[in-house]
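Section 5.1 Outputs to date
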Amino acid sequence: MKSRRAFVLTGLGTLLSVGNLHQDAFASQPSISNSLSEGVPDWPLGLPDSQGIANSAMNKILDAGESLGVMRSLLVVRNGTLIAERYYGGAAVSDLLAVNSVTKSVASILVGLALRQGKITSLSNPVSMLLPEEAAKLQTSPANSVTLDQILTGTSGLVYDYRTQIRLLANAPDPVRFAQGLPCEPHTPAAWAYNDAAVSLISPILERAVGLPVDEFATRHLFSRLGIEHFNWTRDKVGRCMSYMGLKLRTRDLAKIAWSMANGGQWGGVQVIPVGWVDDSTKPRVSASWQVAPISDTGYGYLWFTGNLNGRQVAWAWGYGAQFAMIVPSLHLAIVTSATDPRPQNLPRQNASVMNLVARVIELAS
C-alpha cells in the first residue's frame, strides 16, 4: 500500500493516507470530525456504500480523475456525509485553491442574505438606485438602468467579451466606471451573456447596502456559519473584493457551500441560506448559450447554471478550468471539483472531461 497517496474514503479500518498522514493514525478512527474554533464540525465522513453507492465504482471514478492529468481535487457529498475525497497533482486537503468564477455564485448567495436582512429591498432596483453616487458621476451610462435581477440572470444587455476584456476589467482603476463605460445591446429583452463586468457591480452594491466589506459580510453571515475559517479573496484596484472571480477556498469548504445549496440552504440543521433564495437561484430563468456535455437544456438562475442530466434537474457553479460545484437536490448529492487553468484552446475538452466524471458520480447515485 502506498503511504502518501492523495486519497480519502473515510470510515475504513485500512484507510489510505492523506499527504503526510499515515494509515496508523486512522486505524481506530472510523470517522473524523475536525473541531473548529467556533465549534462547527468540518465534515462527517463515511464510505460510499454507507450512502448507497458502491465503493469500488467510486474508486474507479477517482482513479479516472488521476488519468486526466488536470485534476486538483474531487469531492462527493451525499446526505450530508463526505463519502469520497481525492487530491491530485500534489494538492492537499488544506490548500486554498482558486475557484475562479464560482466566486459569482458565492456573491449570489451574499445578495440573498442581504435581501433577507432587508439591506437590499428589491432585485428590481437599478444600479442608479443601488449606487447613486457612482451613477451621478456618469448619468448617461446604460449601466445605470440595469437592475440587480438582470445582473444576476446574465441579462444586463451590457456589451462585454470575457475573452478579450477580462484583463482590462481586472486592471481597471475603477471597475464601476469600467462597467459604466460599456455600451448596451439594442435588443430588448437582452439575451443571456456571460458578463464579468456586470457582476463586478455586485461587490460595490453589497458593500454600500450592508455597510461592510464583502469579505467581512461573507465571514459573518456565511463562512463562519459553515465553519469556513480560511480563504483568500483578490481585491480590485479600488480595494474591494472581486465579485466575479478571485476567491480561493479549500475544496472541503466549497463542498460545504454546495451541500448547503443542495440541502435547501441548511448546514448542520441550521438554515444558513434562505430556502427561497436557494430555489430562486437554481431555477432556470433564461436559456444559457454555454454548453458542457453530457448536460442538456442549460439555463441560468441567479449566477448558478442549471440543466438536465438523464432526466434529473441539476445546478452548478462554474469556474474557468472546470472548477465545478454541482448540486443534485433530488439525490441529496453535491460534487465539487478543482482543476488546473488550461489554455483557452484546451478549455472545452477539459470542461467536458471533468464534467463527465461528475456525471458518472450522478449516475452511480441515481
